[in-house]
Structures are given as structure tokens and as C-alpha cells.
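User: I'm preparing a small set of examples for a lab meeting where we compare how different chains pack in three dimensions. I only have the primary sequence for this one, and I'd like the structure in C-alpha cell form so I can line it up with the others. Please keep the answer compact; I'll paste it straight into my notes.
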Amino acid sequence: CIFKIESCILYSIVLSAMRQAVRAAAGLKWVGMPARHFRGAHLNLHHKTPKSVAIRLVRQQRAVAEAEAARFQVEDLALPAHSATGNTDGSLSRAAVPGAKQGQYVWELYRQALEKHPMTTKMWTCYGGQFLGDILGQSLLAARSPLAEIPFDFRRHLGLTSFALLIGGSTGHMWHRWLDSNIGTSQPTATSTVLQKLALDQLVFAPFINCAFLSWLHLTSSGGSLETVLPFVAANVMGILKANWMVWPVANFITFKFIPQDYRILFCNVLGVCWGTFVSLMVCTM
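Assistant: Understood. Below is the C-alpha cell output for the 286-residue chain.
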């Protein structure tokens, strides 16, 4: 009788070892022999086969893995205004959006920068538009003169881009906030409100910012002095204002009507790349 019991126990141990080997081969953790297999005279030797147990556990782990993958699936990520991005400070983590496209990732970073540092972000946005515009303008000027080799004017480039960074972006930010806070606050996108903002923008802000631009350009890029600033501005301001009134009324109507305040500088600077190219070419004739 003792020999039979020892044989049964030995058989159970061997069967448990076989199960462990099968599970290890399948990359699973060994759970061990259930306690019900060791109950003296009531030993149950009719277990499931090791293969069926392994298959069942593989299926369970596969179901868990699919559930986890579904939680982090962001192939069709629609980035909300206040999405949970995975970082403790609320900033976007690339690991938190493994399926996001590069463009969506960059846009979310820009949106977060606008929320945290609106003026600084708009200043650098304005700088980027003028930077590209001047490079295109000087490249076009060099292409139009194949016989005369025209070097890149770094001094002029620095004058244009520094104005965009230090003055253009910050004044635009404050001007649009003032308009939205004081003009048509009850109906900000009504046509009458948009036309009022547009009139103020073109008759007040445009002359101011263009006079400031010409003064800055004269002092930084042309080597002018304070005594010659006013004559330089007076000689050139109407030409740049006429060009401004041919382009920006339509663009700013769309801006005031449809674009949220924080994204207006970005929208204007997408168009501003072309405008910056024109300004760069016009500066060459001054």
C-alpha cells in the first residue's frame, strides 16, 4: 500500500515537471501543482494534459495583451484641447502616443506651448515666418541676377528677423487681445464686429507697425542715424502701406471671422512667409 502511494506521488511530481517544461517553452510562468493533487487516498490523477493547459494560458495572456493594446491604441488620435498625455506636468510624451503621426505630435507641442507661454510662442512664430520669407526673397533676388553674383546679406537678414522676434510677435499678440477684449465682446464673430476690428487694424495698427518696421530697418540694416529715420520712413511708408492694403484686409477678415485668437499669429505667418519674401525684395530697392 505504501509503495502504491509513493508511486502515485512520484507520478504526480513527474507530471508537474512536464507541465513546467511546456510552460517554459511557451514563455509562461509556472504556477505549480494544485494542492488538490496531494490529498492522500483521494489523489486525482485525471488532470488536463500539459498541452491543453498551455494552450489555455496562452489564450488568456493573448486576451490580456489585446486588451492592453486597445487601451493605448492611438492610430486615429484626435488630439483634444486638454488630453491626458501621460506626463505628470500635462506635457506631451511621445511614449504616451506611440501611434501619433509626426505632424500631430508637433502640433500638440505647439498648442501646449501656446497655452503655457502664449507671447513667447507667438514671438518665435513671427520670427520663423520672417526668417523663411527673407531667405526666399534673397534667393529670388540672386536668381534674377545670374550675371551678377549677389552675396547673402546677413545684416539685413538679422534686422528683419530681429524685428519680427522682438516687436512684431509681441505687439501682434497684445493688439489682438485688446481687440477681442474691447470690440464686440458679445458677438465676436459677427460681420459688423469683424469689420470694426478690420478698420482699426488697417487704419491704426498697420501704419504704426510699418513705421516701426521701417525705423528699425533703417537703424539696424542701413546704418542710419536717428536724424535720418523720419525722412527714410516718410519716403517709404506709403509704398509698403499700399502693398499692405492689397493683401491683409482679406487675410485679416478671415482671421477675425474664423481663427481663434491664439492661432492668429500662426495663420498670419503662414501667409507672412510670402509677405516676408515681398518685403525682403522691396527692402532691396530702398
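A couple of notes for your slides: The mean pLDDT is 75. DSSP finds eight helices and no strands in the chain.

User: Perfect, thanks.
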